[in-house]
Design the sequence.
């Protein structure tokens, strides 16, 4: 039964999504300094919510100083229809301070898992608030803590846990009745512990507030009231590269602990502000794209695509940007390249095209041109400056990357971990290894969105250290090779090299011939030659060996002796060979008779 109920709810959601295209309801668009609100409730509701939000921003700035301007206001959707709200909340309701940032698939949200009237969603390029049609107080109570984190991240690189939690509560609790809960020393934390506690691996910022958050807020209020200059100096130090280890200057922490446990919260009224809120009827085409962008931020790429079906330039650019999250890298590169050239005035199309990581030189050159347009169109978007710096480093211009990264840190300190990672890459390209290693270590130590990001940055430190070692080893090898070449060149100047040795003579071949000296005519029937060793041939040992032979009446050699020899090493071989010769028996008076003759072997090495 429960499954059937959930199926019916999902069917209602899908039907509502399809009916929304008709845009039958009257939608209003309200703008203020920090927010853009879209609602189908009423113009009055739009003004009320933005007035409340801007008053909270004013209270926040009163405590911490002015906030840097944003390139894009935070976009707030207030849905009158419950089914529209359900469709737009994150697929998995996660901690509001670290919601899905792109398009990872997740399970659908069902109504019984939604326990708030508003959620914060971080999209790939903007921040959204999705809310029911509730009172401004209800909306800010549910999303105010998450918004407080978003604004506090604009102020500092380093965010101690207690300070981040307390600052987020400053935004949420402004104008609310104070919390009168008394915290005993047995259940609470002393100030020394408060200042050093870090969040656990399973900590969820969206969970109901506990003792730590309550005490962090109260300690911060005490400091704002009594140690404002010291707190401001502390905050300033947290926006410096070496600010991780700076400590808050508080004397006698035990006394501060006593005061904290006895502290009674005052009511901090919302300041009266002239929010300069402008409310108009929403443009249907622009509204459709913004609703698609909200769905993209929650991971619903298929649903988002249905809102991008217009033929105006903004819809074409939105469809191209969508390919970055639901198509292959190659498809996204081609789609965004085309749109970035056809619609050069669309800053986000330029940014998203330039942000795709590729190693192809031709694509990198196109990305550089797109990002150069992006930083002009989106001058307050630090990420555009940082991506241009990344592309410049890949293009062999790391010296041009560093000023861009400085600007990115100034504009959007909330992305300092990514910017310091890119700074390390630029320093590596410049062979400034110590600074590269320092930058990647800062990137790893800065706050990150979640535990996987923490682990990933740890691996990046190891990878950069290994690359530095490889580059140094290669450079050392090149330096040694250069030194060797220089030494050889100087030696050649002092003692010219000897001419090369003449080529070796071609190998010799040995030949043996013979000659017979006899008083009567003799005929050889079988001649056996002695061995002529190659060693003697290659040495050029040539000459004659003359043998005296006695040939019997049977034609066989009965005796053989050396008469003279020019190659004595072959005497024995010549005698042995001669004894194997056969002759046709000589005839004397018609009868076979022995004969004496001389056999001359001629050994020739050629």
Sequence:
């Amino acid at each position: 039964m429960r499954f059937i109920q959930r199926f019916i709810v999902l069917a209602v959601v899908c039907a509502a999504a399809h009916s929304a295209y008709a845009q039958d309801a009257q939608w209003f668009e309200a703008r203020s300094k920090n927010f853009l609100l879209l609602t189908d409730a009423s113009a009055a509701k739009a003004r009320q919510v933005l007035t409340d939000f801007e008053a909270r921003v004013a209270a926040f700035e009163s405590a911490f100083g002015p906030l840097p301007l944003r390139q894009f206001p935070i976009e707030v959707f207030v849905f009158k229809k419950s089914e529209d709200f359900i469709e737009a909340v994150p697929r998995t309701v996660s901690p509001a301070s670290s919601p899905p940032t792109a398009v990872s698939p997740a399970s659908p949200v069902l109504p019984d898992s939604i326990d708030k009237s508003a959620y914060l969603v971080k999209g790939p390029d903007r921040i959204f608030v999705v809310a029911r049609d509730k009172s401004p107080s209800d909306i800010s109570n549910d999303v105010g803590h998450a918004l407080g984190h978003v604004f506090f991240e604009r102020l500092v690189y380093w965010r101690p846990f207690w300070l981040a939690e307390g600052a987020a509560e400053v935004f949420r609790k402004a104008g609310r009745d104070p919390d009168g809960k008394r915290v005993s020393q047995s259940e609470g934390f002393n100030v020394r512990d408060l200042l050093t506690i870090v969040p656990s691996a399973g900590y969820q910022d969206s969970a109901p507030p506990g003792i730590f958050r309550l005490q962090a807020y109260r300690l911060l209020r005490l400091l704002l009231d009594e140690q404002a200059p010291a707190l401001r100096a502390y905050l300033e130090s947290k926006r410096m590269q070496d600010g991780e280890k700076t400590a808050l200057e508080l004397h006698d922490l035990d006394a501060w602990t006593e005061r904290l446990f006895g502290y009674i919260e005052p009511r901090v009224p919302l300041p009266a502000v002239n929010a300069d809120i402008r409310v108009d009827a929403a443009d249907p085409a622009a509204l459709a794209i913004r609703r698609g962008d909200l769905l993209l931020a929650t991971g619903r790429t298929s649903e988002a695509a249905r809102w991008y079906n217009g033929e105006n330039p903004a819809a074409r650019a939105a469809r191209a940007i969508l390919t970055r999250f639901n198509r292959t890298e190659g498809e996204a590169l081609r789609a965004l390249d085309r749109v970035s050239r056809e619609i050069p005035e669309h800053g986000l199309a330029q940014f998203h095209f330039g942000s795709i990581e590729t190693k192809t030189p031709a694509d990198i050159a196109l990305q550089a041109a797109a990002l150069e347009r992006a930083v002009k169109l989106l001058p307050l978007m630090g990420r555009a400056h940082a991506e241009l710096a990344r592309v410049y480093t890949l293009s062999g211009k790391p010296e041009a990357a560093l000023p861009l990264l400085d600007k990115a840190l100034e504009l959007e300190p909330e992305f300092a971990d990514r910017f310091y990672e890119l700074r390390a890459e630029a320093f590596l390209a410049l062979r400034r290894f110590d600074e590269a290693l320092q930058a990647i270590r800062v990137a790893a130590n800065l706050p990150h969105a979640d535990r996987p990001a923490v682990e990933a940055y740890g691996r990046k430190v190891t990878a950069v250290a290994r690359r530095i070692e490889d580059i140094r080893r290669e450079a050392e090898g090149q330096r040694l090779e250069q030194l060797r070449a220089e030494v050889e060149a100087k030696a050649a100047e002092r003692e010219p090299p000897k001419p090369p040795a003449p080529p070796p003579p071609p190998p010799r071949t040995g030949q043996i011939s013979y000659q017979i000296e006899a008083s009567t005519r003799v005929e050889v029937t079988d001649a056996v030659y002695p061995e002529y060793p190659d060693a003697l041939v290659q040495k050029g040992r040539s000459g004659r060996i003359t043998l005296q032979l006695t040939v019997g009446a049977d034609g066989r050699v009965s005796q053989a002796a050396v008469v003279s020899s020019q190659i004595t090493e072959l005497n024995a071989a010549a005698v042995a060979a001669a004894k194997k010769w056969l002759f046709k028996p000589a005839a004397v008076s018609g009868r076979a008779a022995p004969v004496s003759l001389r056999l001359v072997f001629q050994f020739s090495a050629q």
